Amino acid sequence: MLYATASQTVGPYLHIGLAALDCADLTADAPQLAGQRIVIEGRVIDGRGEPVPDGMVEIWQANPAGRYRHEEDTGDAPLVPGFTGFGRVPTGPDGDFRFVTVKPGPVPDLAGGLQAPHIMVSVFMRGLVKHVATRLYFGDEAAANATDSVLGLVPSARRATLVAEATAPGTYRWNVVLQGADETVFFDI
C-alpha cells in the first residue's frame, strides 16, 4: 500500500473521481424541505489575491430544524427525506462557487446552549497538504452570532471573515481568502 508523504498535496488532481459527487443544490432531492431557501456564492482567493480556479468547496450543515443527518445527532428535531446537508462544488475560472440550500437552524453546543446558524466549510486546492476547515455564519443573525460559543473563540477583529452578508433577499456573499490581511479564519480540526 502506498501512503501519502509530506510532499504530496490534495491537488491539482482532486477532481478526478469526485465530479460525480458534486452537489451544488442541496434542496434538489428534498421536495418536502421547509425553511428559507438561500443561495451562497463567493470566491476562493489565494495569498496573492488571485482566484483559485482548480479548488473544491464542500459544505455540511444542519437542516432548518437544527438537525444533522448523521448517526451521532440523536436530537428530537425531524430529519427531512432527501436532505443530506452535504454539498460539493469545484471552483470556476474566477475561483467562484455557488450553492443552493436552506438556512440551517441552530444546533446545541457542548454547554447546553445553542450555536448560531452556520455551515461548516472545507476547501481543497493545489498546494495544500491538507484541506482547510472553517465556518460560514450569517450577517443577519447578529444576536445569535453574539452568543455563539465557537465564534466567540475568534478574535473580534477577525470574526467578519466568517460572516456571509446578504446581497439580495435569500442570497449571501462570502469569500474564502487563503492568506494575507483578510485571511479567512481556519480551524484546526
UniProtKB/TrEMBL annotation:
One of its GO terms (molecular function) is protocatechuate 3,4-dioxygenase activity. The keyword Oxidoreductase applies. The keyword Oxidoreductase applies. Residues 40-68 form the Intradiol ring-cleavage dioxygenases domain. Its EC number is 1.13.11.3. Keywords: Dioxygenase, Oxidoreductase. It holds the Pfam family Dioxygenase_C. This is Protocatechuate 3,4-dioxygenase subunit alpha. It comes from Cupriavidus campinensis. The lineage of its organism: Bacteria, Pseudomonadati, Pseudomonadota, Betaproteobacteria, Burkholderiales. The gene is pcaG.
